[in-house]
Fold:
Amino acid sequence: MAATVASNPGPVPVPGNPGMAQDPNSTPIAARMDAGGGASQQQQQEGQGGQDAGPRVPPQHQRVKLSDFSLVRTLGTGTFARVCLVRPAVGSEEDKEKVFALKILRKTEVIKLKQVDHVRDERRILSDVAGHPFITRLITTFSDFDSLYMLLDYIPGGELFSYLRRHRRFPEEWAQFYSAEIVLVLEFLHEHQGGVAYRDLKPENLLLDGQGHVKLVDFGFAKRLGSKDDRPVETYTLCGTPEYLAPEVIQNKGHTTAVDWIIEKPVLFPQEPPVSPNAQHIIRSFCTVDRSRRLGNISGGSQQVKAHPFFQDIDWQALYRRQVRPPIEPNVRYPGDAQCFDVYPEDDGKREPYTESMISQFDHLFDSF
Structure:
């Protein structure tokens, strides 16, 4: 029930070692998530004849399973996914102090919402980009009868959107810092990862780590576009968040990685406090509807963005090495502290069944998990 290891963050404790008792103060995540719906489908399978009652999982994918983790709380929810803060349910006391983010995707919802390709792309791209200082790190993926799981590093600082909402407006120096870290992410995705278009860039998908650096999360709409004849390949999928869609996506004209550089609508600059000429110019350069003239997509790519006068005080090497002190340091009291995230209702266990027809038609597409 386990799958692809994208990086080596240290061991994830697994059951089966003698002397490793389950933490009596934590609740196994499988039990918590099925509390509203009786026995889990995996348990029902076992009670109805074991392996013959459902799809067999290859032995090499059985190293990690849901019961290896205990649920702490839900960090966020989406249309077909839920992200939970979890810790190992077994292992030494030191192991049990580790925390992770577990993204849970229901196969039935993924199929009904026609997100199978997006989920497969997300797993593949997250595996490829693991290790970048400003991108969330995929540790491993695994699956069971009706769900897919992505185990990620836990980023405790919460959404950049929450801080922007609290402050209402960032000082220009703060905006310069966060946008510079985002530029480094887009440079990496577009120019060093075969033309990966992220396609859902927004403050809600930018988390702050414990020191205050940006971490880009949720690659559910990311796609590797590649190039042909030295030109970026276009795609026509309508996806993203409506408030942040690029004009070419809305108009179905075909889009490239240029969608990640657009600011979604014209900006009116306030008189007080004043906005510097450099800031106004770079914002207008990103607002260009004609993508052939859009900063970041013109000749020179991200280097043209980094050379803009708005970033003249940025030491790009030091920034990449995380040697520049962030303007906001989140109030993280301990490694598993989740106070920077909103509170969400926990999973009630109710879900549509993963039917035999779905299994026969789609389950092979989830083999990589």
